[in-house]
C-alpha cells in the first residue's frame, strides 16, 4: 500500500543505486552460504515419518457406549453435589446446568464441579463440552459429566480483532508479518516437533529450525534490504550464542524437563523422546520473537543515523546506535522476566506459602527451568545487540557515504521508530551526543558540494532541531564556540 509523498516518484540517483548494489553484494556474500548451509541442515534433519508407532493416550477417547457432546446452557440451579470435593463440608452445593445438546432433542442436566463454579459464573448461552456415560453410569443422575467449556467463538473473535488491529496499524507489512507467523508454525509443526519425537539432535533441530524461521519471516515481513540482511546476521549470531549457552546450562544444572503430567506422559510414551532435549530445543525457540525485535530495530537505527549524519565516523556511529541498544536491553530484560512471572503466578504463590529457603526455592525443579530459560535468552539477546550494531556500521561504511538504502519499497509519510530513536540520540546533551564532534573528525567541506540524493521520509528538514549538515542546533552552537576559542 503506497503512500503519497513529495519524493515518491523520484528516481534513485546514480550514487544511491551504486550504494545499493555494493551493500547487496557484500551481504549476499555472507548470507547466501549461511542460507545454503541452513537448507542443507534442514534436509539432513528432516523427519522420516517413522514416529507413527509412538502412541500417546488421548484424554478425550471414550469406551464403547460413551460419547463426547456439546451443548448450550439454558438455565442454572443450585443443588447438593453428586461428587463433592475432597475434604468438602457435608452438604456441599454445586451449580447444575440444564443444557440443550447440539443436534439432539430434549434437555440434559450437567453438574459443574465446585472448583469450576467458584471461579466462573455459568450463565445462559455458555457453551459446554460434556460426556455421556450412557449405560455405564452407576447413577442415572450422573449420566452426564462436565468436561470443559467450548471457547472457539471468543478465541476466534479475539484472533480476528488482533489481526484487524495489526493490519490497520501496520498495513501491508502487518499482513506479511501475520503470514510469516503462519509459516513459522508450519516449520515447528512439520519439522521441529516430528524431529524431536524421532530423537533427532535437539540442539541442531532448534538452531536450524529457528534459522529457517528467521530467514523467511524477516525477509517476508520487512522486505529485501541491507537493513534486513544486517538484522538477520545479528539474529543468527544471537541464535548460535543462545544455543551454546542453552546446551551448557541444561547439562550443568541437571535440568530433566520432568515437572508436570505432560512431561511424564511423553517420557513413558517411548524411549526415543528426550525430555531434556525438548527442554533444550525450547530454550532456543523461546527467545526468537524478542531477539528478532531488537536486531531489526538496531539495524534500522544505524542506517537512519547514517542518513542524518553521513560524515560521522564508524566509532561515533556505533556509540550513538548503542545508546539506543542499551535502552532496548533494559526494556527487553524486564519484558522477559515479567512475562514469566505473570504466567507462573499460581506456582510462585504456592512456593511462597511453603516457607522454604529462598535459594532452595529458586533452584528447585519448578523454578529452575524458567529461570535458566530467562537467563539463556537474555544472554543471547544482550550479545546480539552490539554485534548487530557493529555489522550494520561496517556495512554502512563499506558501501560508502551515499544515501542509505530504503527499508523496502514502501514510502513512509512519517518518521519511523528507528528515525525517532536516531533523532533522539542526536538531540541528547553533549555528554551523550554522538554528532557533536563530527566536523572535528571529518575533512573540511568545499565551499560548494554536490547535493546528496534525498531519501523519502528521511529529510533532515523534517526533524526539528537538526540542521542540514547533520548537526543539532545545540551541537552547532558548541562547535562554533569551540572554533572561536581555538582562533
Automatic annotation (TrEMBL):
Protein name per UniProt: YibE/F family protein
Transmembrane segments: 26-46, 149-170, 177-197, 203-221, 230-249, 269-291, 332-351, 371-396
Ranges of biased composition (kind: Basic and acidic residues): 478-487
Keywords assigned: Membrane, Transmembrane, Transmembrane helix
Taxonomic path: Bacteria, Bacillati, Actinomycetota, Actinomycetes, Micrococcales
Naturally occurring in which organism (per UniProt): Mycetocola zhadangensis
Region (Disordered): 404-487
Positions with biased composition (Polar residues): 412-422, 451-461
Keyword Mitochondrion in record: no
Source domain of life: Bacteria
Amino acid at each position: 500500500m503506497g503512500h503519497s509523498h513529495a519524493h515518491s516518484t523520484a528516481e534513485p540517483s546514480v550514487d544511491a543505486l551504486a550504494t545499493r548494489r555494493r551493500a547487496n553484494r557484500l551481504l549476499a556474500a555472507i548470507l547466501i552460504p549461511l542460507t545454503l548451509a541452513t537448507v542443507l541442515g534442514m534436509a539432513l534433519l528432516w523427519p522420516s515419518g517413522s514416529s507413527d508407532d509412538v502412541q500417546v493416550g488421548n484424554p478425550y477417547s471414550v469406551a464403547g457406549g460413551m460419547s463426547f457432546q456439546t451443548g448450550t446452557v439454558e438455565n442454572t440451579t443450585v443443588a447438593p453435589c453428586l461428587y463433592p470435593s475432597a475434604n468438602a463440608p457435608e452438604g456441599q452445593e454445586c451449580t447444575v446446568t440444564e443444557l440443550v445438546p447440539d443436534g439432539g432433542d430434549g434437555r440434559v442436566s450437567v453438574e459443574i464441579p465446585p472448583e469450576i463454579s467458584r471461579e466462573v459464573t455459568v450463565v445462559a448461552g455458555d457453551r459446554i463440552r460434556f460426556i455421556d456415560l450412557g449405560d455405564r453410569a452407576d447413577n442415572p443422575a450422573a449420566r452426564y459429566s462436565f468436561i470443559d467449556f467450548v471457547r472457539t467463538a471468543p478465541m476466534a473473535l479475539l484472533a480476528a480483532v488482533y489481526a484487524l488491529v495489526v493490519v490497520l496499524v501496520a498495513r501491508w507489512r502487518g499482513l506479511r508479518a501475520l503470514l510469516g507467523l503462519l509459516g513459522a508454525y508450519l516449520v515447528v509443526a512439520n519439522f521441529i516437533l516430528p524431529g524431536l519425537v524421532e530423537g533427532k539432535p535437539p540442539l541442531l533441530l532448534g538452531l536450524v529450525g529457528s534459522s529457517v524461521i528467521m530467514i523467511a519471516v524477516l525477509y517476508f515481513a520487512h522486505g529485501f534490504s541491507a537493513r534486513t540482511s544486517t538484522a538477520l546476521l545479528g539474529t543468527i549470531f544471537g541464535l548460535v550464542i543462545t544455543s551454546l549457552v542453552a546446551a551448557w546450562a541444561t547439562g550443568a544444572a541437571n535440568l530433566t524437563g520432568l515437572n508436570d503430567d505432560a512431561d511424564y506422559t511423553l517420557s513413558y510414551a517411548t524411549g526415543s523422546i528426550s525430555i531434556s532435549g525438548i527442554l533444550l530445543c525450547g530454550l532456543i525457540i523461546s527467545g526468537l520473537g524478542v531477539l528478532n525485535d531488537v536486531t531489526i530495530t538496531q539495524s534500522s537505527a544505524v542506517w537512519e543515523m547514517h542518513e542524518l549524519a553521513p560524515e560521522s565516523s564508524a566509532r561515533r556511529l556505533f556509540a550513538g546506535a548503542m545508546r539506543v541498544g542499551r535502552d532496548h536491553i533494559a526494556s527487553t530484560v524486564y519484558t522477559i522476566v515479567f512475562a514469566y512471572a505473570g504466567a507462573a503466578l499460581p506456582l510462585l504463590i504456592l512456593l511462597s506459602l511453603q516457607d522454604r529457603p529462598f535459594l532452595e526455592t529458586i533452584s528447585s525443579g519448578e523454578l529452575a527451568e524458567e529461570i535458566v530459560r530467562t537467563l539463556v535468552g537474555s544472554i543471547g539477546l544482550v550479545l546480539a545487540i552490539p554485534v548487530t550494531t557493529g555489522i550494520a556500521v561496517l556495512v554502512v561504511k563499506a558501501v560508502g557515504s551515499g544515501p542509505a538504502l530504503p527499508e523496502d519499497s514502501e514510502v513512509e509519510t512519517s518518521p519511523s521508530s528507528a528515525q525517532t530513536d536516531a533523532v533522539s540520540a542526536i538531540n541528547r546533551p553533549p555528554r551523550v551526543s554522538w554528532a557533536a564532534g563530527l566536523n572535528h573528525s571529518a575533512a573540511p567541506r568545499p565551499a560548494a558540494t554536490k547535493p546528496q540524493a534525498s531519501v523519502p521520509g528521511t529529510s533532515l528538514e523534517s526533524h526539528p532541531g537538526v540542521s542540514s549538515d547533520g548537526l543539532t542546533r545545540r551541537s552547532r552552537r558548541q562547535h562554533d564556540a569551540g572554533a572561536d576559542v581555538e582562533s
